[in-house]
Design goal:
Blueprint: H1 12-28, H2 35-38, H3 44-60, E1 65-71, H4 75-81, E2 87-92, E3 96-97, E4 101-103, E5 110-120, H5 131-137, E6 138-149, H6 159-164, E7 171-174, E8 189-194, E9 197-203, H7 211-223, E10 234-236, E11 244-245, E12 251-256, E13 260-267
Parallel strand pairs: 1-10, 3-7, 4-13
Antiparallel strand pairs: 1-2, 5-6, 5-10, 5-11, 6-7, 8-9, 8-12, 12-13
Amino acid sequence: MSDRPGAPSLDPDTIEELAGRLDRARLSRIPTTRLTDDHLHLTEGDAYAIADRGMKLRRDRGERVVGAKLGFTSAAMQRALGVDSPNFGWLTHPMIVSDATVSLGELIHPKAEPEIAFLLGKDLAGPGVSAEQVLSATAYVMPVIEVVDSRFVDFRFRALDNTADNSSAGKVVLGTRATRPAFDLSRVGVVVTLNGHVLYTSSGAAAYGHPAASVAWLVRRLAMSGRGLEAGHLVISGGLTGPIALEPGTQVVVEIDRLSSASMQVTS
């Protein structure tokens, strides 16, 4: 992946066909093969164009964009996928879960990740936005649990497949309390409990060194195509641990120092 956007190399009809393919996979819960298997020379510009077309299909059905998400923010994930920067996708209102219950019947390959979310109090746009400016524009932060859900067979994909698939956006389970970001978010401790047993520990620095730096990267990346983030947007800044496989009955609890907690109960 690159910090520089590129124009799509695929023709508009092919971009629409691939976006429709991913959309049908999501709606039917029948995964599809990797786009990069059929289009060996897929580019970053193609991948984001496919994702944008997919979001248009969702908006045409009445979904509202309410925020954005970061992917590939950890060094380990970047090494695993052979990339050197994050990617991003968009969040729509049906993705937001406020009752702490996630049904597997709506998803294909659900996996949970703890994250720190930023609720913006001001618009954010421009090529030079810094982490400090992100924090200044943020009204509140909170713990969330992202439920990623790849639309590809066996949860196997390359980086550009993931980008085309809206960065595997699935659901976002909101935390119990919003907090003003008046302390160093890179130093907060993270504890993830699975069915009552500690599974992971981490820190806020796992998201691109600092969660606000992750959001700043997104704003700069959006600026390259004349876009930005809006006041009221919820931005989730990247996974803080490895993914957690989910099955009916699973309970996941995320506790983040000074930020309260988020919990999720999985149903069939």
